[in-house]
Amino acid sequence: MSMSFDQYMRDSVQPMRDELTNLGFQELRTAEEVEAKLPTAKGTTLVVVNSVCGCAAGQCRPGVGEALKHDITPDHLYTVFAGQEKEATAKAREYFAPYPPSSPSIALLKDGELVHFIERHQVEDRSADQIAADLTSAFDRFCR
């Protein structure tokens, strides 16, 4: 039995993608899709840089899911997948300056400008509940 590496990776990461798309996130898979959405999005936009790592599974995605149960949430939800759609991820990261590339990570933009960012080291060292609390605080501040 033979399976291509690309097919194996698509099959392996699909459940990780589904965790966010089931919450209402739209995947941006090309640099062109990122460029069409992020700079023109009016209001607030949450962008999750998804990843296959354990901290994405144990803290980041669950924390984001919990935060989205809050009364105040962003207007737009987008995700890019680091290591999968490399050009889309690189293009999204251009909007996260001055922060270096980091995955997983979570960006909150308001009218296309970065207003809050959670880097990988802030995911690794905190629980999903702590990440949710950080995000809901940012939602309260920027999404009204």
TrEMBL record:
Organism field: Paenibacillus farraposensis
Residues of the signal peptide: none
InterPro entries xref list: BrxB/BrxA (IPR009474)
Protein name (record): BrxA/BrxB family bacilliredoxin
A Pfam match: Disulph_isomer
Family: Belongs to the bacilliredoxin family.
